[in-house]
Amino acid sequence: MHRYFIFLSFNGARYHGWQVQPNGMSVQQKLQEALSTILRTDIEVTGAGRTDAGVHASMMVAHFDDSNENVDGMGGTYQLTYKLNRLLPYDIAIQQIMEVPETAHARFSATARTYFYFIHTKKDPFLGDRSCFIHYDLDFSLMNKAAALLLENDDFAAFCKAKTDVKTTICQVTKAQWEQIDEHRWRFTITANRFLRNMVRAVVGTLIDVGRGRVTIEQFADILASHRRTEAGESMPPQALFLHKIEYPSEITSLMA
Q1: C-alpha to C-alpha distances, 114 to 75, 110, 129, 142, 173, nearest whole angstrom
Q2: Strand partners, 99
Q3: How far is CA 24 from the centre of its chain?
Q4: What is the C-alpha separation between 195 and 170, in angstroms, rounded?
Q5: Residue 74 CA to its chain's centroid (Å)
Q6: pTM
Q7: What's the CA gap between 171 and 192, in Å, rounded?
Q8: What is the b/e burial string over 3-20, where b = at least 16 CB atoms within 10 angstroms of the residue's CB?
Q9: pLDDT digits (tens, 9 = 90+) for 44-55
């Protein structure tokens, strides 16, 4: 058996998230259909995680198995990348395909994931589909003080979507910071070993409350300690959220071109 990692990016505006859905088009569905067509056999792909409806990915990773050496038979990973990009819709792009050890897993082998959330503070008709317009003043210094508390905690139940079936709400956040891009644009970067469903958008929504003066630093700490989603702020719109990077151990990344 041969296992392959696919590195791809996509604009999530038209999709009901990454995972196959019974009543909506997903990125996983489109990728599986294209692979199955090209390799002339049913292919299932496993993603590094899920993205919600409307969320984008600058970098997503998925793996699939080829037991009949179809990839080699049609010219290898370079040709497969070319043919996939010809067949897939305009808003999904394959960056690279590489063979990895059979034990490598797109989801479970990942060591860290990084998300970006973008906001802009001046109305801009060209940013609405990939950034969130904020029309009120924000104190980004306070927001960064609150964000620093995320690195001191490991239980993020307060930012997990209610009624989500997860075994644990423990995550190790290693970066959480607001950075100014230009006069009217800001980016929130958050890195962790794993994320809960809806976690990033809930974190951003609560940090926005801090920046507006609705929540103090002390209250933000209390929200973290409460482990209750009802205590945190509203989830922010999905179109401003990007899965930016997924990291893997050196024995996998050393294979990348």
Answers
A1: 33, 11, 20, 22, 10
A2: 4
A3: 19
A4: 9
A5: 31
A6: 0.94
A7: 7
A8: bbbbbbbbbbebbbbbeb
A9: 999 999 999 999
DSSP per-residue letters across the chain: -EEEEEEEEE-GGGSS-SS-BTTB--HHHHHHHHHHHHHTS----EESS---TT-EEEEEEEEEEESS-HHHHTTHHHHHHHHHHHHS-TTEEEEEEEEE-TT--TTTT--EEEEEEEEESS--TTTTTTSEE--S---HHHHHHHHHGGGG--B-GGGSPTT---S--B--EEEEEEEEEETTEEEEEEEES---TTHHHHHHHHHHHHHTTSS-HHHHHHHHHHT-GGGS-PPPPGGGEEEEEEE--HHHHTT--
Residue-wise pLDDT tens digits, 173-206: 999 999 999 999 999 999 999 999 999 999 999 9
- The residue whose two tokens read 């469903």 is 197
Residue type, 113: R
Give catalytic residue positions.
52
**Amino acid sitting at position 248:** Y
- Over 70: is that where the pLDDT of 223 sits? yes
Separation between Cα atoms, residue 91 and residue 89, nearest integer Å: 6
From the CB of residue 124, how many other CB atoms can be counted at a distance below 10 Å?
A: 12
